[in-house]
Amino acid sequence: MTAAEVAANRTALWFAKQERQDELAREQCGGLVEQALAGQLQDWLGEPEGWLATLLLLDQLPRMIFRDTPRAFAGDALARASALRGLAQGWDQQLPPIQRVFVYLVLEHAEDLALQNQAVRLFQALTQEATAAEHELFAGYLDYAERHQRVIARFGRFPHRNQILGRSSSAEESAFLLEPGSRF
Predict the structure, then answer these.
(1) 33: domain range?
(2) Residues 92-138 pLDDT 10s
(3) Is pLDDT at 44 greater than 80 in this prediction?
(4) Which of 82, 83, 95, 138 has most Cβ atoms within 10 angstroms of its Cβ?
(5) b vs e for 128-160, b when ≥16 Cβ sit within 10 Å of the residue's Cβ?
(6) CATH number, residue 75
(7) Residue 28 burial (CB < 10 Å; 0-12/13-18/19+)?
(8) Confidence grade of residue 3 (pLDDT, cut at 50, 70, 90)
(9) Which of 1-10, 25-34, 86-95, 148-157 has the lowest mean pLDDT?
(10) Rounded distance between C-alpha atoms, residue 88 and residue 9, angstroms
């Protein structure tokens, strides 16, 4: 199955906000997410597939399981540190391109411009590597990375997280949040 076929079948699961999916994630993965957040899955970080699984448990799944709460971002620091260690070892290159997306998303979720820049570079490389049939898919992921990068370059943080994290929004951020497509 090509990356485009996998994405076509899974995009709603991966990125849509659906209450039932969040419940299923909580039921099926909640215990593992708690273990990962507590640093109890360090032995998974010894090879690329375990590294990817840990990143998913620290980054993507908390965003579903703890949606609209501060805990949605509780694994971000651990995910970033783990992602950077694995990237330094070249583990992303040992994964299929569609799986690399979830490694690079860890950087794309960071409220740090240097990490945003790195995410964009990685998505650019992924897009350049894509076959003709998959180019549009990976170009779409690159577009999203560039949109995230622009928000961080402008505000230094994601304004759509402010309310959840108890942060005050500036007037400029409040105006931005009224724009279509301002929330990820």
Answers:
(1) 3-177
(2) 999 999 999 999 999 999 999 999 999 999 999 999 999 999 999 99
(3) yes
(4) 83
(5) eebeeebeebbeebbebbeebbebbeebebbbe
(6) 1.25.40.10
(7) exposed
(8) low
(9) 1-10
(10) 31
Which one, of 133, 108, 135, lies nearest residue 122 by Cα? 108
Question: What is residue 168's DSSP assignment?
Answer: P
In a domain, 184, yes or no: no
Q: How many CB atoms lie within 10 A of CB 61?
A: 22
* Domain count for the chain: 1
CB–CB of 141/123 below 8 Å? yes
- The sign of the dihedral angle between the CA atoms of 139, 29, 79, 74 is positive
Assess if residue 119 is contained within a domain. yes
CA distance 83 to 143: 21
